[in-house]
Amino acid sequence: MPREIPLRLCSASILSLWTVVLWSVQVCAQLSPQPSSILFRLQDIPRIPFPPPGNAAQSIQVSPDIARTSTTRVVLDQGAIRGKLVETPSQRGLIAFLGIPYAAPPVASMRFKPPLAHLGWSSVWDATDWREVCPQLDYRGRPIGSEDCLFLNVFTPGIKKGNTFPVVVFVHGGNFDSGSGNLFGPQALVDQNLVVVTLNYRLGMLGFASTEDDALPGNLGLRDQLLALQWVRDNIAVFGGQPDRVTLQGQGSGAVCVLLHVVSPQSKGLFHRAMVQSGTPLSEGSLHMSVREATQSAALSLGCSSVISSHDVRDCLYNIPVHELLRTQQEGKILGDYPLKFTPRIDPDSHEPMLPTSPTALLASGNFAKVPIIIGYNRDETAVLYPELLALLRSELGDDQDYVRNILLPKFFRTALNIRDFSKETLDDVYENYFSGTNYKDHDGIIQAFVNMSTSALFVVPILETVVLLARSSPSTFVYSFSYRGDISMLDSKLGQSASRRVNLGPAHGDELLYLFQVIGSGLRPSTNLVDEMVSRRMIKMWSDFSRVGAPVPSPDREYLPWSPSSPSNITIYQLGRSLRPHFIEPQEADTVALWRSVLPQMTDNTKQVEQVALSGHTSVDPVYRTLAYSMLTVALALLVAVTVLLAILYRQTRSNSFMCGGATPETNSRSSPDNTYDIY
């Protein structure tokens, strides 16, 4: 082979490698922070590392067959319990104890009474199957459940001396009138060496009706949760759990409850971290300010016409069949589950109040449990209202070009936001912000604008306001935005999977749960999508690491990097999604936040207390893409060095051979033979 061929190959290789290097540098530059006018900084990769304390981030090393060699029988002070072995994704298995009673049945004279601890049982309690859910209506509007429903479920990797695990207690959502701990299978979380507890609590009128005095004090659902947390503190060690490492996790109205426990003086010391998914008591309607009115109205609707005092109301409601209570609490609902009528309340009049004053005041004063917190929202939370919105538009819109401004928006304000006193100027401002570019005949366009508006009003802005209040006193507040819409969605249970896929909306309320739990629900099917599995794997890893150490731990393989905590003046939002190229996250505009601060009563009350969030921005990039770019840059530079060394050796050999053949220099050869060019330097 002629000497010039290797040199030409080397030249071409170097040019190609330089191209790769320059491309990699350009990509890495795009991964760096860019200035912008974004109100809140959203990012996949935070710049400030947050190292976990000590060696706590290390995974707990346990025998892979611990579940299969563990006992399925434990003994509590209440009595003996028998559980069962359940398979997990890793095939390691777990031990499940289903339907453990943590409270005496709240039936007969105990209806509308605070819960009492269960006294126990004499024979072995069979905990191998689910127990009843609390009374509610199913998706077809049929009554299900039993008032004897205060059970919890414990899932453990195994029970062996010397092996103990952090604990996660999950509080389900459902707008305070539906749901159950039985719906959420935590197999994947237990595979991460966690003990997981799910629970039932009283819902609707049975859980939150109140006359705002000692007759019906209310907040019974919250007190059920409180008793369950006390049960966990006293008993979880028997199941291999660590009572001093308990994470309280909730979604939707369950997330509202978690934050209420964070601020409640009754719950302090019962948990040590919190995970708050898509809910906050600062959202309008989460705490109904007129539960008493709703209770009295329901009593009249149920035929309690002779009521005079609060005790008369209570005595009448004692005798109403549960299916009648369920029917009545649904009356007047216009937009999905809105308006919410039976919710937690501020109860300074109660004995040992759960909420002596408003959550806003407790947060602003710093008088709350300063535990590490993960808090966030999904991109299109209110997409779950799609069927109801479409039905409204089809039945009411017609040819009314002002329907949105004059009918839909006032309906939203009165039902979802529970605001009855609003001005025309307010409606005009909201309309111009969200609907000004929509065609009144474009149903999907109106729904998309409505989802953007209502997600901001009910979730994004109240949650970010909550973050500011939390971060003023707690340095470990981590914020996320879940933006991935995969092959599975909560909309599937409403529309069916094929119809749901045609809806051009992002992840809806509850969608993130599908990547953390095996959710049981009509119309929901397991995903076989590899990207769905990747997103699920990441979330489970981050959530379980937080449960162990109180901070999201960076991945050793740099698939995802540290997640910075937020401060009142610099909210860092970790983008939980999937992207194979750099992109900018659409900003939550400053004027939008200012708009809702002026409109929402709770936000208006906060304006003087809450500091303005700094203007900053950041490019959001998928961690896998970042890792790929930096890896390619490293490999390209290494190859460039190797080829350069090889070229230098070949060049020296060429010069030596040229001298031996007559003393010609490379320059002489270049002039005499135009095809032999060595001008690569």
UniProtKB/TrEMBL annotation:
Keywords: Glycoprotein, Membrane, Signal, Transmembrane, Transmembrane helix. Residues 72-580 form the Carboxylesterase type B domain. Gene3D superfamilies: alpha/beta hydrolase. This is Carboxylesterase type B domain-containing protein. The chain crosses the membrane at residues 628-650. The keyword Phosphoprotein does not apply. SUPFAM superfamilies: alpha/beta-Hydrolases. Belongs to the type-B carboxylesterase/lipase family. Residues 666-681 have a biased composition (Polar residues). It comes from the Eukaryota. Residues 1-29 form the signal peptide. The keyword Ribonucleoprotein does not apply. Residues 661-681 are annotated as: Disordered. The lineage of its organism: Eukaryota, Metazoa, Ecdysozoa, Arthropoda, Chelicerata. PROSITE patterns: CARBOXYLESTERASE_B_2 (PS00941).
